[in-house]
Automatic annotation (TrEMBL):
Residues 2-244 form the Endonuclease/exonuclease/phosphatase domain. This is Exodeoxyribonuclease-3. The keyword Metal-binding applies. The keyword Metal-binding applies. It is an enzyme of class 3 (hydrolase). Belongs to the DNA repair enzymes AP/ExoA family. Transmembrane segments: none annotated. It holds the Pfam family Exo_endo_phos. Keywords: Hydrolase, Magnesium, Metal-binding. Its EC number is 3.1.11.2. Signal peptide: none annotated. One of its GO terms (molecular function) is double-stranded DNA 3'-5' DNA exonuclease activity. Its cofactor is Mg(2+).
Length: 252
């Protein structure tokens, strides 16, 4: 999940969540911290047995992705071979016994700006990498793209907004056509949401006026093993430790 700054999140409830979650692997995005700062913030969890693999961002206070796991991974790789984005702290993957698990943080973007151009360059390179993958592989993250009208409450008002642009949605559809399954949507077909991000502005959370931009894409062999997906939405606004909620998938 996107923790919206690991140092802030651990002070607002993330450590307590890690202490009770049944998850074996937790993919985090937007740590906004160096390796040292991230390990310091997560020290109680690491002392309690969690292992951390982390890709710190080259830009201070931006991005940063990690994988927390109850077992130490056999191998960890940072980046996906991109010269431009290799040190950006936007992708990390780890090999476990029978699967590779990855954490990604796609740019938020902003229509008709250099930020959106950078997002498209990332999508082009990352999409090619994803299409080259085989085997038991799942990538979990903040994609910053709502794939369909079911994936955001106010889709009519966001037709020209980054995160719901035709080019972005078409990219997700290309990935699905290439052999990936959107595991959460597969387990929750035809329903609005379940949303995973709500703006801090207004009453978006209270009204459940959200976006489904956090999800897991898995290749078919692993996707078929998914049996349950839950968005762990906080019970109340003041109990949130990020503007995103954990999206937890159980695999057989």
């Amino acid at each position: 999940m996107n923790v919206n700054g690991v140092r802030a999140a651990t002070g607002k409830g993330m450590l307590e969540w890690l202490a009770v979650t049944e998850a074996d692997i937790v993919c985090v995005q937007e740590t906004r911290a160096t390796d040292e700062q991230t390990r310091a913030a997560l020290a109680p969890a690491l002392a309690n047995g969690w292992f951390l693999a982390h890709a710190e961002p080259e830009s201070k206070g931006r991005a940063g992705v990690g994988i927390l796991s109850r077992r130490e991974p056999r191998c960890v790789r940072i980046g996906f071979g991109s010269a431009e984005f290799g040190a950006s702290g936007r992708y990390i993957e780890a090999d476990f016994d029978d699967a590779t698990v990855a954490s990604v943080y796609v740019h938020s973007g902003e229509e008709n700006t250099p930020r959106q151009d950078e997002k498209y360059r990332f999508m082009a390179e990352f999409g090619a990498y994803l299409k080259s993958r085989t085997g038991a592989y799942v990538v979990s993250g903040d994609w910053n793209i709502a794939p369909t009208e079911l994936d955001l409450k106010n889709w009519k008002g966001n037709l020209k907004s980054a995160g719901f642009l035709p080019e972005e949605r078409a990219w997700i559809q290309e990935l699905l056509a290439s052999g990936y399954t959107d595991v959460v949507r597969h387990l929750h077909p035809g329903v609005s949401g379940p949303y995973s991000w709500w703006s801090y502005r207004g009453r978006a959370f209270d009204n459940d006026s959200g976006w489904r931009i956090d999800y897991q894409l898995a290749l078919s062999g692993l996707a078929e093993r998914a049996k349950q997906a839950v968005v762990e939405r906080a019970a109340a606004y003041d109990q949130r430790w990020s503007d995103h909620a954990p999206v937890t998938v159980q695999y057989r």
